[in-house]
Amino acid sequence: MKAGIVGLPNVGKSTLFNALTNAGALAANYPFATIDPNIGVVPIPDSRLQTIESHIKTQKVIPAMLHLVDIAGLVRGASKGEGKGNAFLGHIRDVDAIIQVVRCFEKAPGGEEITHVEGSVDPVRDIQTIEQELILSDLQTCESAKAKAERAARGNDRDAKARLAVLEKMVPVLEDGKPARSLVLTDPDQIKALRGLSLITVKPVLYLANVGDDDVNGQGPLAQRVKEYAESVGSEMVPVCAKIESELSELDEADKAEMLADMGMDEPALNKLAHAAYRLLGYQSYFTAGEKEIRAWTIPQGCKAPQAAGVIHSDFERGFIRVEVYSVDDLVAHKSEKAIKEAGKMRIEGKEYVMRDSDVCHFLFSS
Questions:
Q1: Closest CA relative to residue 3, chosen from 280, 235, 269
Q2: Residue 349: beta bridge partners?
Q3: CA distance linking residue 114 with residue 259, whole number of Å
């Protein structure tokens, strides 16, 4: 799972990226501090891995991973190349989801004045500024692609005709200031053609409200405005205090737990972000477990067993025979795989099996 972190300059985006990935030094407080995208790979917290390990002895435990891409601050006019906009927009096309960091504090912790690129703090305006730049970028992409598709469609090219049909529907949507994700398609060829366009605004967006240390749970008016906006577009808002997350990233687990309790927080931002990203993208986890490793794998909800096996290796999908499967709850109840089998809870499933969250699997395949 790969997510791009975007935001206007000086909203705390790179500070949060460094805290979440424990990257160390913070970016300077001025626009375009980061030009090439920094990439961090962070483990997705999942207590089920520890539950499995308590019953199955193993050499190592490997969580699912979240790839975070810190994309430099966008500004008004980015779609026209302002502020290195073209390069930044290109980096966004390569992610599964967009995480937009929105400033929800007037002054930085300690009272430091941080200049807002728009001159005032207005989180919904900031969200809409970035959304419009992404929409304008997609509109340029579609207008350019439409001319090419019209020429190719004259030759009776089926793919070109599907692409042209999508573009004829999409251009008016973007011209109306709406994101590509608002266009609902049902034709399989058109859905395939849409994926091939690599539009930015087709990607789901999660909003991170960067709050002050006096509003860690995002109950203040600025954060609540972001929450209301997110809900209105079918998304979520996760409150995060960059300063606190920076401090937490440098603590051991015991001190981290104590600080969280002192601040009235139930978990660090990374946990909240990972859970929200899973919900946003419609993902779930299954596990493999053995003497060599216990590992979490990320799959879409509704994924069938062969495709889930293919996440491990493409050979597993091609040669899929069956899967032996049980749940983490079965392991908790019966304490071992041997006992699960004896209780008749180990299931044998075939190619049409739809994977469930918390499945523990042993795939059988032919080479």
A1: 280
A2: 323
A3: 26
